[in-house]
Amino acid sequence: MPLTRSRTPKFCCRVSPSRRLFTSCQTLAFLFSLTIAAMPSNAEVRVLRGFTLIDGTGAAAVPNSAMIVDGGRISWVGSVSGLKVPAGAEVVDLAGRFVMPGMIDLHGHIGITSGMTLDTKSYSRETVEHDLKMYASYGVTTMLSLGLDKDPIFEIRDQQRTSRPAMARVYTAGQGFVYKDGIGGGISFPGIPSAIFSTVADVEPAVAEQARKHVDFIKFWTDDNMGKAKRMPLDICKAIIDSAHKHGIRVIAHVFYLEDAKRLADYGIDGLAHIVRDQPVDQELIASMKRHQTWQIASTLSRELSLFVFAKTPEFLSDPFFMRSVSGDTIKTLSSPEYQAKTAADPNLEKYRQTLATGKKNLKALADGGVRYGMGTDTGVPGRFQGYFDHLELQEMVEAGLTPMQVIVAATKSGAEFLKAPDLGTLRKGKWADLIVLTKNPLDDIRNTQTIQSVYVAGNPIYTKGTSK
Prior knowledge:
- Helix content is 33%, strand content 19%.
- By secondary structure, it is of the alpha/beta class.
- Strands 1, 2, 3, 4, 5, 6, 18, 19 and 20 form a 9-stranded mixed β-sheet that branches. A 4-stranded parallel β-sheet has the order 14-15-16-17, covered by helices on one side. It has a 3-stranded parallel β-sheet with strand order 7-10-11.
């Protein structure tokens, strides 16, 4: 049944010619459509009716549901039979549709990539907002940017929290911390401002500087990139955690090894930004994570997939849901024999396949063991596509042994709980109306999260399928 509205808003759009990253006509057209869809309606009261509600709490789906949105928030939700349409409200008929909360990606990056090109110097308000619109168009209505940001992020974030954004809401870890012989931050991404530590004495001034910027989290990297670098020493890791907690800031770490995850959990770290991938997790880690309330904020299984999937042409390269937001040049690059040969020549290619398999088993073990977990992708760098990879991540999580309902809760309610954002994550009275309208039931098949009809942020439709210039 077609989506109908009783009121048609007027829109306008302007694309800045200074945006150097907008080199693709396809990308220009796509972003133009997002800008049009993002312009708010004049209606402050909107009624959605006739849909099946998946509210994000884990409760059973409820057919024939309705919702009243007033000023961007849900003022009432219940059965169509109990609906009383307010006078003058815009009514949206969603019969046959499925409505779920907007997704929350707890590990992404923004503002530094165009197509398959990494360009940290291009980071600006414009590139950041471009990427936040991209996430939102795929139903990711909130994201946590982990450690590769520059200072424009703070103004964007602060403005969002005093308004009704027309793009994904953003949380930020500001500038992440790295070890002088390690990976991450400005070492792996030249041009990104990062505090580079040599000793414990370097820690407190750097944490204090991030605290002055009011970061939402502190992020640091400890990994050796398959033996090519050195892991951050544990005394520095502990100093970061202790200092951040003293400043009232929670801490997230990039990890790879079980040994590191155990020690960081023992130190009281708040979240692990990747799943352990070197070996199976054990009961010692599970017990420590539960005792210290350490979250597995993201398993980033799609990140592992990206390391080897382009060794040949992946099926999704011809998927319209993927193609609608990438340039022809990007598809040409990923399809080229040269690029695929380069990917296939990586000496660690088989290890990447193994780390993905290990990561899936470990996610299932942590979930079964009672560890809290969310959803995240590590998207926003070349080859990891914002929005589309969130849907791949859901699929990988289901393949790991979780149910579609578990995965949806992880990507909605749990994400909001980790962020301590009580107004987000579920579709209940008083919450922000951040939601996705689907044409098929994702509880039947998690791949149905790709059947997006429209996306709402703060009660306004910011993406509608088929919207064009």
